[in-house]
Amino acid sequence: MSVPRLPACGAPVAPPGVRYDLFDEVYRGLLGAGRAGSGYFVLTPPQETRFLFVLGGLPCGAGRGRGNHFSSTLIGDFFAAYAKHPTAPLLFCPADASLVHGLLVLFGGQPSVQVTSDLVDVQGVLERLAARGVGSVLALRDREQVHLALCPAGRPARVYFVPDGAPPPPDQDPRDALLAFLSAR
Fold first, then answer.
1. Is there a single domain that holds both residue 94 and residue 122?
2. Which residue among 137, 164, 169, 173 is least enclosed by CB atoms within 10 Å?
């Protein structure tokens, strides 16, 4: 099974030997103790990958990934899958609030347009989005990797690339970073 790779805002943490019955302890260790952390858990049982999204220390959504398809699920579905596969590999990926919101959009909605980047003028698409002022999340897929560009009012404001989701240098415009990233591929 191919495991989708999403951006994170730091190095993913693989808690050693985590079992379902120890999840609360791991959760508190990563997100508790007065920290209002954000990020997402990735559970990889057979056949599909499960995700639990955390914002401000609290679960705010869940989803599943099967191949190139993402869908939103109930938070309880993450725990049901974990209970069914109590020793499945678990990973925690830190993420800022903007990235978590972008991922929730990715998992919660159907794309309005799907195109292959080598068949479309991406700069032209960005110009049309900006002219319309339409807020959007661009999901850029490269095999199992999914990169995100958050575009409020149609203009790239934040970009997140796999593997580390590190933002571009502060002096680089997100739009320029996105176009440079695409042209390099």
1. no
2. 169
Complete DSSP assignment for 7-69: --SS--B--TT--GGGHHHHHHHHH-TT----EEEEE--TTSEEEEEEETTEEEEEEEEETTE
CA 50 vs CA 82, 107, 123, 149, 168: distances in Å: 9, 11, 33, 22, 28
Domain that holds residue 147: 117-184
- Total domains in the chain come to 2
Please tell me the pTM assigned to this model. Answer: 0.86
Tens of pLDDT along the chain (185 residues) come to 567 889 988 888 888 777 888 888 888 888 865 566 899 999 999 888 999 999 988 999 999 988 778 899 999 999 999 999 999 999 999 999 999 999 999 898 765 555 555 656 778 888 888 888 888 888 888 778 888 889 888 888 888 888 755 556 667 788 888 888 777 76
Helix (H) / strand (E) element for 4: namely none
User: Distance between CA atoms of 27 and 38, rounded to whole angstroms?
Assistant: 11
